[in-house]
Each structure stands twice: as structure tokens, then as C-alpha cells.
Amino acid sequence: MVKIERAPGLGGVKSCALAPSKSGSTQNMAANIKVVVRVRPLNQRELDMNTRVVVDVVDEKMLVFDPKEEMRPFFYQGVQQPNKNFLKRANKELKFVFDNVCGQNATNNDVFETTTKDILSSLMEGYNCSVFVYGATGAGKTFTMIGNAENPGITYLTMEHLFYTINSYEKEREFDIGVSYIEVYNENVYDLLKPSSTPLQLREDSKYGVMVAGLTLNSIKTARELLNMLENGNKNRTQHPTDANAESSRSHAVFQVYVKMRYKTSSQLRIVKLSMIDLAGSERASATGCVGDRFKEGANINRSLLSLGNCINKLADGSSYIPYRDSKLTRLLKDSLGGNCKTVMIANVSPASTSYEDTYNTLKYAARANKIQLSIKKNIVEGDVRLSQYVKINQELMKKVKELEAKLSLSSVKVVSREPDMAKEKAKQEWRKRISAEEEVYSGLESKLLSLMSRQRVLALRQRLRTRAFTHVADLAHRSSTEAMEQMCNEEIPRQERAAENYMKQSVNLDSKVLTAWTKWDECKKKLHVICQQALSDCPELSDFVDKVHLNCELRQIRARDNLRQKLLSIENDEIEAFTEYMSDMPSMLKKLYLTLKGYDKAPPALTAEYLEIMKKAKSAKGITWSDDGNEGDAHFKFVSTLDLKKPSTTLEYGFSKKEDVNATVDVITDSDDLTDLENKEPIKLSAKKRKGTPIKLLNNETIIINDSFESMDTTRNLNSAKKIKREYDFAADVENYGIIDPKDLNSTFVMTGKVESMKKPLKTEFKMELNPVKKGLTDRTNTMPRTINFGDKAKVVKPVVGKALPFRRPPLQQNPPQRNFGFGSSVPRDAQAQRNVQAVRARDRFQSHPYSRPPPISRK
Ligand SMILES: Nc1ncnc2c1ncn2[C@@H]1O[C@H](COP(=O)(O)OP(=O)(O)OP(=O)(O)O)[C@@H](O)[C@H]1O
Known about the structure:
Blueprint: H1 13-16, E1 33-39, H2 44-48, E2 55-57, E3 62-65, E4 74-76, E5 79-81, E6 94-97, E7 100-102, H3 108-114, H4 116-124, E8 128-135, H5 141-145, H6 154-169, E9 173-185, E10 188-191, E11 202-205, E12 209-212, E13 218-219, H7 223-235, E14 252-263, E15 269-278, H8 285-288, H9 293-317, H10 328-332, H11 334-337, E16 341-349, H12 356-370, H13 376-379, E17 380-381, H14 385-410, H15 418-480, H16 482-538, H17 543-599, H18 605-620, H19 635-641, H20 659-662, E18 695-697, E19 703-706, H21 715-728, E20 751-752, H22 773-781, E21 795-798, E22 800-801, H23 832-848
Bound molecules: adenosine-5'-triphosphate.
């Protein structure tokens, strides 16, 4: 439902008395209606019939209807006879004066200049404005309103100028433009942009004025969009051929533009409306030769035109009662006629004698509308008094022109004749058309490119947030329980891997689309630039037009950037809200845990200190100050928040394809600082040593989770131990052979132990060091011993445990029945001693893995 809000403080008739008038007319209500008459050229049919021209345009304000014809001298017996043709009807010779008269050669642009161009400033000041075209069928109403591709009508020209005007106001106001296009046919209202056989209902509201229930407002950004819209709308308009016009419109078409403007400083909101109405033909029923349904159509048309005329008359008389309710048309235009509305009426007439009656009626109707400011007597000038005045003025002016011409020729300034002016005007028109057509293509390509680039950035941000969330979950899983880790490996990691793969696919796809779109856009941009340069060198006067094209382009880009930022902000905001909620629960839980421990006297001073530190941070979180330039160095942030059209950026350039960003599980493990000491000279990420509980992908594509802090390990010793193990034992056997190593050979801080049930599953025999050089290299260079714990073949858990393993021995290999090596995590039952050892290790682990009670390393014997 369309709601029409009255511009504040401008509702009454009184306020319109202050309406500024650009036409220079009086400032009262009467000044609101401006009447312009347009005389169309004779059409081919009329030319073929050699019809007499009955409208003579004297100048830009005056026309003579049915002028006197020059009589050919009639001689009888060599004597000229007085011109008397008693059979011929006397010529009316009526002189009409209007605000403007556009002759047969006037273009739509000329009509625009004299009609709607001026009223746009009133629209910007907060007044509703309306333009009517009135006239008989075939008089040129639709041509004036809509025009054609070569000669766009005043609707297009007005909208073009409106966008231009809006640009000049944009520093101080924000604008929103919506348009609707409806027709009133047989006293029913239909939406031309969303055709339906069910008529729309008119509603009146004391607050919002006239509303059309169910009417959709279409938002437009350029005047070009409007052309397509009007073209589509006109296809839906009711037309029937009449005797006078093969494409006669049998309905009143009402095009309305709602301009919502908000003042940036005061936040004051104004909604104004510009109505442009192409009325149905005002011809007599006999002129159309219509009977039956067509006759009824004509009767309805006449009824609404009559009530429109009545309303205009009553408004002119200052009557308190205006019969708006007499027809649908007047009801619809209630707030576009009186009140704070500035109205222009364009009366279209044909000059042919075949349309004599219709032209006469139209001129009378127009004169009656003009009566609003002048009495009809003054308007229809009697006798030759006014004409003689005109002739006198004309003679004086001609004299002045001659004097000026003489002066000009004396100062050897070339007087530019009217002919070249016309040629220049035509050339300008041509350039405008070419530039507009190219700009339309360009703006289409640009919108597509900007939308793709925005999608690219939104995708990148979402992936970053997803990865961050995953790291967080992995960290939590590590800290909570082995089951959580198991679930992590079985579900979260594969899901994350799938998401990362998906992201890669999508971003590569988007990147290539962006590249293609950018190439096309860039080509088109160069082409447009060349055309603009050529146009400027040919007609420098077009600089304003070219500037406007550039400004439009900048505007589009700014809007796209703005939309993107809003979208990114809303995504980030959701994330922050979720995180804040989660964080607000943490301190209370932490407090409970700490107090429980303290209750059992299990809270050592270090823990207490850390707890107090965390609580202090939690409390001061409220007072966080935000740094404006915190993200300056972040390439990701820059990429996501900028839409730079200079070159098409891809996600790859900004490192999203780097493994840690795309998928935190993909990595090469190392825990040694001594990089030179490594046999495997893979590039190593120092940051990796900081990870705890992070899933890590090995070179052979296995995923493991490090279940403790790397920082806590004595890496040099670990490495040496690992090397020592390599020297002393043959690794041709299953990796489980680690189990038979004398624990004394392992360093004091790092022993593998198996706690999870799944560790007891049979080990994969194919995991041989010889067959897997990568893993071999890995075990050589790192003290992180990979356990072959298999969670659905997807990931494995490595559990470095602080402390030293208690010694235990495996039974000999040649035992009968043949058995695999026993060890931690083996599925083979252990003997009693081994069981006891395992329990002892577990008990020790439970105690020693607590970071606040780490015992000194057990010295080797
Ligand atoms: N100023 C003009 N210059 C050139 N051609 C014109 C002009 N005005 C009208 N025409 C032509 O005259 C024909 C009839 O014009 P148009 O359809 O605009 O009339 P109309 O008043 O809208 O008629 P109806 O009320 O029946 O719809 C069209 O072919 C149009 O192109």
C-alpha cells in the first residue's frame, strides 16, 4: 500500500499562497497553474489530403486559431473585385495567449524547457507538482509525455533533470526515489508495472492522503531505467485504434514519482510527489467513430475530463468545496491538483482543419484553465487591438535587432546564424544519445562487477570467521575431554575440511568471474572515455553532461561500497553478539570451578594468581577502548572492506588460500626451534609451536591433534632423544615399536601414552617407516610421536604428556600364539605387570599433567 505523506507545514491552500513561482507569475493560488499549448506538425495523412492549417503560432506566447486566409485577387473585366465568398464560413480569427506556445518545430526538449524544468525546483522545496497533457486523440499527448528513442518525452527528460538536481543537493540531503505507473480505465485503477485484471482500490486517509491499495513503488537509480519501465508499462496500457489514431490510448496514464528526502543536519523528512498524467483523448465521440464498448469508454473519459475541468474551475474560484469525488481520476489526483501543488497543463492540438472542432475545444479548455489567473476575456483577445500592439512591439524589436546586427558586423564579430545553431544542437543531441547508450552498458557491467566483488568479500569474511570459530572449538575440545577430541576428529575436522574445500572452490570460481567481469567493464570504461573525449572536443558545451556521467559512476561505486560495509558490519555484529553472550557466562563458571577447587584445598597459589588475573581482565573488559587504526596492517581487513576497481583483486592475493587461513587442520608439524638441525628442510612456521589442541595435518595427509603445549617441551632434548631412538632401534617394525624402547631412553618431559579406548584397536600394519619417508623424516626430526590411533581413518591423536613413563617391558615377539608388540594403545591384553605399569602411568599422568604440580624430571639411572 502506498502511503503518501504530506510535506510538513504545507498542507493547506493558504500555504500554497506562498509557493514560489519560477514562471514569474503572481504568488497566489492562481499562479499555480501554468498552461502551455503544443501544436504538432501535420501528419502524412493530413499532408496527403492537403488540409488547411487552422492554428497559426504568432510567437512563443500567442497563437491565432482559424486565421483569416489571404484571398486570391479576383478580377472581372480587368477590375479587381472585393473578396467575397458567401459560401465560405467566416474565419474565427481567435487569438489566444498562454504561458507558452510551442510551434510545429518544437522538440520535446523545448517543451520540457518551458514546462517541467522549472517546477523541479519547487519539488525540491517540498511542493507536490503535477503535469497534465490534454488534447484530442492523435494530437500528440503520448508523444509529448513518452516520445520515442530519438526524441525522448518530457517524462524521461524531467527524470533526468531530477537526478541531476538531486546530485546537486546530495551534500545536504539523502534521497530515495520510488515510481509508480497506473492507468484509470473505465473508472477503474490498474497498475501498469504489475499488470493484473483486478482493479486497485483507492483509499483516503486523513494522515496520508490518497492511497492506492496494493500498488508497488519501484525504486529507480537512473533515468535510463525509467525508459525501460515506461516502455513496459505502456505495453500494458489500454489502447484501441480509433478513426483518428491507430494507437489511441483509451485510458488516463498516471506516472508518479515519490521523492523522499531527509535533511542530513536536522533529520527532517519530506516526501513530495511529482505526477505526470497522460490523459485520454478529449475528442467528441463522433470523432472516434466509436460505438458500443468504445462509446462507453469515451463517455467515461469525458466524465473524468469534465470533473477534472470542474475541479480546476472550483480551485480557481477559491471555492471551499472541490468535487474531487466525482471521478476516479480526480480522486486520485486530489493532492496533485490543489493545496501545495504546482501544476502545469500542456494542451496538445493538431493544426489540421480536419481536427477543427477538437482543436477549438482544447484551446477553450486550456484557456479556461488559464482563467485561474486571467479572465477569459483577457485571455481570448478581441479584435485587432492586441495584435496591433504585438505588431508594434515586433517592429521595435526588429529595429533593435538590426541595430545590434550592424554593431556586431562593425566589430567584425561573426553573427552565428540560426542554421548552424540547429546543426550544433543536433550534434549535441547525437553525442548525448551515444554517451547515454554507452553509459547504460557501462553501468550494467559495473553493477555486475561490484556485486561480484561484494560477494567475494562477504565470502572471505565468513570463511575467516568460520576458521576462527573452528580453532576456538578445537581449543575447547582439547581442554574438555578425550571424547570431545574424538568427536572433533570424527566430525568437526572433516566438516571444516569440507567447508574449506567448498570455500576454495567458490572463491576460485568467484575470482574468475570477477576477472572476466572486470575485463569487460574495463574495456567498456575505456570506450566510454574515448566517446566522452570525442564529444568534448566536438562540443565543449557538453562538459556538464560528461561530468554528470562521471558523477553517476562515482555515485554507484560509493553506494556499492556503502552496501558492502553495511553487510560486513552486520555479519561482524552477529559474531560479536554471539561471542559476548558466550563470554558473559565464562567468569561465573570459572568462579564456581575455582571455589570448588579451593574448597578441596586444591588451588595452588599459581592457579589463584592466574584466576585473579583472568577475573580482573573480565571486569575491565567493560572499559575496553577501541583503536581506530587497529586493523590497518591487516591485509584481510583491507581486502574485505575495500572495493577497489583499479584492478581485480583475488582472494589468493590476500593469502586466504594460505593453509592456516583456509583450513587450520592443514599444516606441517614441527616443535623444534632449532631449524638447522632438521633433516627435513621443509619450510617451518614458527607460529606452529604456539598451538595447543590444534588439529594438524601431516605431510602424508593424516591429521593429528597435539594434546599439550609445545612451549612446555624441552625441544632440544626431545630432538636428541628422537635421534637417539632412531640410531639405536630399527624402525622397520611398526611404529608401535616405540613401546619397547626403554623408557629411560626417552627424555624426561615427553612420553607417549595411550588413554583412549580406541588406542587399543589393531594398528595399521601398512604404516612402515620405510614405506613412508615423510613420516620417517618426521619422527627423525620431531619428538612428537605419531600414535596410530584411527578415528574413522580421518584423524589421529597425539598425546604428548609431561613427565616420564614408568618402565615396563613387552613380552618377547616370538611368543605363541604370535602377537603384535604390546604397548600403550595396543589392543592386545597386557600381562598383570604391564597392566599395573599402565595404571601407574595413568595415575602419574593424572597428577603430573597438571601444570601447577609438575614434579622435577626423574633422573635417568
Ligand atoms: N510533435 C510531434 N512531432 C512528430 N510526430 C508527432 C508529434 N506529435 C504527435 N506525433 C505523432 O502523431 C501520432 C499520434 O500521436 P500520439 O499517439 O502522441 O497522440 P495522442 O494524443 O496520445 O493520442 P491518443 O489520445 O489517441 O492516445 C503518433 O504517431 C506520433 O508519433
